[in-house]
Design a protein that fits this description.
mainly alpha
Length: 151
Amino acid sequence: MSRIIEAAQAEAIEELTPLLGRRKACQATGVPQADWYRKNRQSPAPTRPLTPRKPHPSALSKAERDHVRMVLNERFADSSPATAYFCLLDEGTSLASTSTMYLILREHGEVGRDQRRQATHPPKTFPNCSPTWPNTSSSRPRGTTTSTRAP
């Protein structure tokens, strides 16, 4: 009996969908929209072809990237890209930004984690609070003080 009702509801949804839309058709027939989608989904979803990403219009061409790498490796081999950038600006030329220079060098494995190791602090030491006298929480007997003044 329920299969006949479900079939009638599905047929009604298919007829009402072009007129009202899927949501209203499901509401009119009393079928939860999620149930309809769950029963009528095509699993697995069709795969979309992967489209290659387009380069940004202002991105450097392969020849320009090679030129930047050549300049950095020949003239500024012992300098950072930031130093090279400002030296080139002083000369009146601008090849690329410092981040682009780092990116180009990183692509070829010519720059990496060259930062020095940061100092680490020794672990914090906590005093040993185990009692040495009975019924106390310190290591000295009750009644004694740590004061150095004479009474």
